[in-house]
Design a protein that fits this description.
The complex is a heterotrimer of chains A (332), B (358) and C (330).
Chain A lengths: L1 H29 L2 H6 L7 H5 L14 H11 L6 H13 L13 H36 L4 H14 L3 H15 L12 H35 L2 H8 L4 H9 L5 H25 L4 H10 L3 H29 L1 H4 L2
Helix pairs in contact in A: 1-14, 6-7, 6-9, 6-12, 6-14, 7-9, 8-9, 8-12, 9-12, 10-11, 12-13, 12-14, 13-14
Chain B lengths: L10 E12 L2 E13 L4 E5 L6 H8 L8 E8 L2 E2 H6 L10 E4 L13 H13 L3 H14 L5 H4 L9 H13 L5 E5 L7 H18 L2 E6 L2 H4 L5 E6 L2 E7 H6 L4 H8 L57 E2 L8 H13 L17
Parallel strand pairs in B: 3-8, 3-9, 6-7, 7-8
Antiparallel strand pairs in B: 1-2, 1-4, 4-5, 9-10, 10-11
Chain C lengths: L2 H6 L18 H16 L11 H4 L4 H19 L35 H37 L1 H15 L3 H11 L4 H28 L2 H8 L4 H19 L1 H17 L12 H7 L3 H6 L2 H27 L2 H5 L1
Helix pairs in contact in C: 2-8, 4-5, 4-14, 5-6, 5-8, 5-10, 5-11, 6-8, 7-8, 8-10, 8-11, 9-10, 11-12, 11-14, 12-14
Classes of the chains: A mainly alpha (332), B alpha/beta (358), C mainly alpha (330).
């Protein structure tokens, strides 16, 4: 077990470095961060100006354009090659410095600290919604497999899986916020109650399709488990059906759901970009879209890294969860 | 046995039929099975794979899939078992009657400690507290001969060998002192070396507790010396049933005879050839209207192909469903005419050495 | 055999030994199973129904053909949109702003008075083009990497596996945003971006099936006969690996279409006034006022997109069952 964990941790660290390096070089090589700091000045041929080959077109004599460019380069380490910049960036990360937004000179860490709670609440609520819907749904469908309820729910889950979440979000917003006015159409983040209440629709938008896929997996695995001998044994022991379902059958049937729990968080994070947009939630998802549109590299980079790392760590945790679910994985 | 038994049987099965609708047609798994089991007795149900013996057991325990169609009467101590199951009566299964399954690898929940699995029954049926139930679980494991029972309760099934797991399953079944235990091939999936230990253990526990037992097996040798009565099943029917002594030494059905010939015996000479039963068990979908064993039977005559023979005699006596029973004149005559023809009426070749009439 | 005997593998009277059962899987094998599971699940392939008979899976059924018919209509409409007798989708004030559906404009008009029907028809172009291109790219790149890794094993396999793992570590929409943020948003770039998302899942599937087939006798036979690696890969492995990959094409396309829609919804899909996409149309009408007063502007593209994705998923799932791909994936 210990060796297993050590190997997994080594892999985890390697993946984290690879993910950050890939993201970092993509942003730096595919785009030009300098443009975003100094605008058109990035086009200046400062080496030519220094050498006197190109005319210096600086208007304001007090601060020469090339000095501005040089200062910017120095500040953001843009005069260094990418690998060096990456090392510097990681070093900064280690000291808690996520860089500074190009847009408003705010430290990125502050941006994240402000926006993260909303997104976290949204994601947690979405998972609660989906598990809360999927577990009873899957249990009933498996218990009455191939009866009317089960057949209907198969169709329903297929439908839910085929609704893109932006479409579902818009439809829910229209029906429940505008037409029937059950939920607020605008985000209310002043107090916790209002916040949670206005997060219900977004969480349902994210969670419902996920619930459908959880339900399908759980139902399939439960049907298989319910045919296992140990379930027959539990029935022969005279235990009531509900007890058998929850005490015996459910846990060994959760593997697929747990597996997808890890993967789906990635999908949920992706979905949160869209859903925060629809429902006007000032979270990480909306922030990254805004930053992308404004080419605010440090913010995009930091959020992408944060998200990717969370995702990797979460899947690592999921691997460990298997061993809780099945002691056979734990042993040997 | 009828003369020795008390007036009313503990378990009585009458004209049990079980059918499974499938894609290819209806499977007639059990076709009119009847038997009685008296308090403190052991009934062995013997048959090949697909003979309906396991389905019969599962029917008794109400473990069949919902699609199964069951008819017939199952009475336990004067109560209708199927009605009890339908009404979801509590504390009947597991307390009055319970079952041990074939494969201890799969009949224990892999994600629960074995102690919990035993204690669970005690807590649910007898209302024991958690710690009381665990203590009792240790005692039960001790009773079934588990070494170091106190340590075993906190182990998971995968940490135990097959033989030990089956002991856990037996301990679990015995927890609430059931009056009837159904053991479905309890030793088939464990190592040969521990099979006898387990069978003797079951037998001993049954005697000590005055329990009744239905022992289901494909191996007549397992039934020998442990069963009071034996019912031989073939193609969903009981083809012969009698007290163990009569069945082993004065059998009438050719299938029983063939089964006995197919098992090795300790007094067989070295390199003695066993006689396997020719052919395979019949399909249970749309069976032809003939004796199901006829195609594999060396006694088969043309009248065997003319309809399913009825089980003769009264319930509780030696009964058999055969027109040309072995050990009778009719049987001898059938055998010799088949030998002379070189083949049975169903077309099975018969050679001179192919097994004589006992 | 009776139902329960088939399940428990009851030995016959002729005296077979105990039947080995599952439950002894080593940790490595279990973990490997979960990894494959994760791959299969992450591409949202629903599992087979264990209560269904194999015979049922062999039938495609009426609803399958219904889904195919819808997809064919969409494909036709996408291919020939400019030639169809519909209004100019970019023409502002084709009608008044936010007019409800009428005989002239079947789906009504949007805030700028453009014909929603015509825009929906033209929207199929980008959605399906991006979806189709992306999945082809994913199959070619991911498929080749997966086969090569699965065939040669060793260091190469580890390297490719690690690369897939890294790619999968980005939530897909985040990775897509990262790429489209830094490059210009042409049709090619957007398709490529979504194609990259498909590389790792397709590659892992190809690798898994290659591993299965590389063990089979016909590959060993070819090797013994002295066939070169390239020949074995192309002649022996490729035809077998293509089947499971091909069976998942439509399911992959469904994911790609949704991904494009999400990008478009965020304004990060193909740029340009005439680059109409369903996602863009939906976001155009998703403002509270439009939603309140001119629901049709969003709802028509929502319905069309839903039907298309549903058809892709449904037909894809039927095909997957038909080829029994799960068996290969495990």
């Amino acid at each position: 077990m210990a060796r297993f964990v050590v190997r997994r941790v080594v892999l985890l660290v390697a993946v984290l470095f690879a993910v950050t390096f890939l993201g970092f070089s993509a942003m730096n090589l595919l785009g030009d961060p300098l443009v975003n700091v100094v605008g058109v000045l990035a086009e200046l041929d400062c080496e030519g100006i220094e050498a006197g080959l190109v005319e210096d077109t600086t208007v304001d004599a007090a601060s020469r354009d090339c000095d501005t460019v040089a200062a910017a380069k120095a500040q953001y380490h843009l005069d260094q090659p990418v690998p060096v910049r990456y090392v510097l960036w990681v070093g900064d990360l280690a000291t808690g410095d996520f860089g500074t937004s190009f847009q408003n000179d705010q430290p990125v860490s502050q941006v994240i600290r402000e926006k993260l709670p909303e997104t976290l609440i949204l994601l947690v609520m979405a998972q609660i919604v989906s598990l809360g819907v999927a577990i009873p749904w899957g249990v009933i469908a498996a218990y009455r497999a191939n009866r009317a309820f089960d057949r209907g729910s198969t169709v329903a889950s297929f439908g839910l899986l085929s609704v893109p979440n932006f479409a579902l979000g818009v439809v829910l917003l229209y029906l429940l916020a505008l037409r029937w006015q059950v939920f607020p159409s605008a985000y209310e983040g002043d107090n916790l109650g209002g916040l949670v209440f206005s997060m219900v629709l977004p969480a349902v938008t994210l969670g419902l399709p996920l619930a459908a896929s959880y339900q399908r997996l759980l139902r399939t695995d439960l049907i298989t488990t319910l045919q296992e001998d140990f379930v027959h044994m539990a029935r022969a022991k005279g235990l009531p059906p509900l007890r058998i379902m929850f005490r015996h059958a459910l846990r060994p049937s959760m593997f697929s759901v747990i597996t997808v729990f890890g993967v789906s968080t990635g999908a949920l994070i992706g979905g949160s970009l869209v859903v925060e947009q629809i429902f006007g939630i000032p979270g990480i998802g909306r922030e990254i879209v805004t930053a992308v549109v404004r080419d605010d590299f440090p913010v995009v980079l930091a959020i992408v890294m944060l998200v990717a790392c969370t995702f990797v760590v979460l899947n690592f945790v999921v691997d460990l969860l298997y061993s809780w679910l099945d002691p056979r994985v734990r042993a040997r | 046995m009828a003369d020795l038994a008390p007036s009313a049987p503990l378990l009585s099965v009458r004209d049990l039929h079980v059918q499974f609708p499938t894609e290819r047609g209806t499977v007639n798994a059990v076709n009119g099975v009847s038997f009685d089991l008296y308090e403190g007795k052991t009934l062995a149900i013997v048959g090949e794979s697909g003979s309906g013996k396991s389905v019969t057991a599962k029917t008794l325990m109400n473990l069949l899939p919902r699609t199964a169609q069951v008819s017939g009467e199952v009475t336990y101590d004067g109560r209708d078992v199927r009605a009890l199951a339908a009404e979801k009566v509590k504390h009947f299964f597991g307390v009055q009657m319970t079952m041990v399954f074939q494969d201890p690898m799969t009949s224990l929940n892999p994600v629960k400690k074995v102690g919990e699995q035993i204690a669970e029954t005690l807590r649910y049926h007898l209302g024991r507290s958690r710690s009381e139930a665990l203590e009792e679980a240790v005692e039960l494991l001790d009773v079934v001969g588990m070494p170091e029972p106190a340590r075993r309760v906190s182990q998971y099934p995968h940490e135990l060998s097959g033989g030990l797991r089956q002991r856990v399953v037996i301990a679990m079944a015995l927890a609430c002192q059931p009056r009837l235990l159904i053991a479905d091939e309890p030793t088939t999936a464990v190592d040969v070396t521990v099979q006898k230990h387990l069978l003797d253990l079951l037998d001993e526990l049954r005697r000590n507790r005055g329990m009744s037992m239905i022992l289901i097996t494909h191996d007549l040798g397992v039934a020998h010396g442990r069963a009071d009565d034996v019912a031989v099943m073939y193609a969903g029917r009981v083809v012969e049933t009698a007290d163990a002594r009569t069945l082993f030494f004065d059998m009438r059905h050719p299938y029983t005879e063939a089964l006995l010939r197919s098992i090795p015996r300790i007094d067989d000479p070295v390199h003695h050839r066993l006689d396997p039963i020719p052919g395979r068990p019949p399909e249970l979908i749309d069976p032809p209207d003939e004796c199901a064993f006829a195609p594999r039977c060396i006694y088969a005559q043309s009248d065997c192909l003319g309809g399913v023979p009825e089980l003769s005699g009264l319930v509780g006596l030696h009964r058999f469903a055969c027109l040309h029973p072995t050990g009778t004149e009719r049987g001898m005559a059938a055998m010799s005419s088949n030998r002379a023809a070189g083949a049975t009426a169903a077309g099975l070749p018969v050679t001179g050495s192919g097994g004589g009439s006992g | 055999m009776t139902a329960d005997d088939r399940k428990t593998g009851n030995p016959t009277a002729s005296g077979e030994g105990p039947v080995p059962r599952k439950g002894r899987a080593s940790r490595e094998r279990l973990l490997w199973r979960f990894r494959i599971l994760r791959l299969v699940r992450s591409s949202r392939v629903p599992d087979d129904d264990p209560t269904e008979d194999a015979a049922v899976r062999r039938r495609l059924g009426f609803s399958f053909w219904l889904a195919v018919a819808w997809l064919l209509i969409m494909a036709f409409v996408a291919a020939f949109a400019p030639m169809l007798p519909v209004a100019d989708p970019t023409k502002v004030a084709f009608g008044g702003p936010r007019e409800p559906p009428s005989a002239d404009a079947w789906f009504g008009t949007d805030a700028l008075g453009r014909d929603v029907f015509s825009r929906t028809v033209h929207g199929a172009r980008i959605s399906l083009a991006v979806g189709g291109f992306a999945i082809v790219f994913g199959m070619v790149v991911g498929g080749s990497l997966g086969i090569v890794a699965g065939y040669f094993r060793g260091r190469l396999d580890q390297a490719v596996g690690f690369a897939f793992f890294v790619l999968l570590s980005f939530p897909s929409l985040v990775l897509a945003i990262l790429i489209t943020a830094t490059l210009d948003r042409s049709l090619l770039v957007v398709s490529l971006t979504i194609g990259i998302l498909a590389v790792a899942p397709v590659g892992l599937l190809a690798r898994a099936s290659t591993l299965v087939f590389a063990e089979r006798e016909f590959v060993a036979a070819a090797r013994v006969l002295g066939a070169r690696h390239g020949r074995i890969i192309v002649r022996e492995l490729l035809p077998n690996v293509v089947i499971p990959m091909g069976a998942l094409t439509l399911l992959g396309m469904a994911i790609a279409v949704v991904a494009e829609g999400s990008l478009a919804f965020l304004g990060l899909s193909v740029a340009g006034e005439d680059a109409i996409s369903w996602g863009k149309m939906i976001v155009d009408g998703a403002g509270l006022r439009d939603l309140q007063n001119a629901t049709h502007v969003t709802m028509f593209p929502v319905v069309v997109m839903f039907l298309t994705v549903l058809s892709l998923n449904f037909a894809g799932d039927r095909i997957r069952q038909y080829f029994d791909v799960k068996e290969l994936a495990f």
